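Example record

Each entry pairs one chain with its bound ligand, zinc ion.
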Amino acid sequence: MDVYIRSDHIEKLSLKMNVDIRYIKVAPFFLNCDYFYSQSGNTTQVKWVMPIGIAAKRRRTGLQYCPRCLIEDEHTPYYRKHWRLGFITACIHHAIQLLDRCPNCNHPISLKRLQKAPEAIIYHPIDIVYCAKCNFDLRCAQSKSACVEEMKINQINSSQYANGYGSAGNQEFQYSNLYFEGIRRLLSFLICNPKGQKLCSYLKETIKPYHTYVNKPLVKHLEPELMAVEHRRLGFLMIYYFLQDWPNRFVDSCKASATTTTQLYSPYLSYPFWIADTIRFSLKTLPPIVAKQEKDAIKHYLSKKLDRSIKDYETAKFLKKWLVK
Ligand SMILES: [Zn+2]
Ligand SMILES: [Zn+2]
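Structure tokens for the complex follow.
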């Protein structure tokens, strides 16, 4: 219900709870996602919002949480709304990494999985801090501090989400949508695309403090909101590195890892201009333009040297060999 509520249900809820309709409308992501996802068509899904419930069970992703926030909630702990967002990986207040699994049994956190004996059907607010699988108290999970870079990218993501615009590294975004679309493409490429693995491995080696993070195996073709928090964290640290000097760092890293425009680009996906321009214009090594007179001169020279007529493709071959890197 925090993702989508049908409009007739909103009215019913408003009547039953005696709450103004405006207050209910601010709750679901579907009606409040303009800053990070522009909906098209009739889908009720919202990109970046991590699924819970049945879908989560199948895909094995869980609710994210900050153990320290849950401790501070004392008797009425609750899961923050922004913990549902795939572009958040750390707690801004405590500067620690969010978790999405039970540290004891490694099961994804899911409120739907609360198993209770029939006689104990009434839930207590405190129940939500216990792992539904093994009953571990999630407040006891060891907290791991988030590095400066992770905090920075989380701050950028939060402010883009809250304001609908803002700066990210050396880039200014008038519309946060363009920012989120771009980092979505980069994250998918780095973490879920086999063609992105050269770039990912190169970055792990190059940006030294980051490579200590995880070495989780590659997951193929997952939407960012379905990725485990460790994967998103790794991808965002790399994206943060790029954003400090966009597009230079990105272009240099692609070139160093032999990642080409063709590997990066997919005709089935849409790219915001700041990514598209970089892929098309900054990364591509265009062959030098050779004037017709030059070609003719080469042709003439070769035919004189070899004492035979030279075909056009031979000139082209010669030019490619000598002029294109
Ligand atoms: Zn916290
Ligand atoms: Zn557990």
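Residues 102, 104-105, 107, 131, 133-134, 136 surround zinc ion (ligand 2) (CB under 6 Å).
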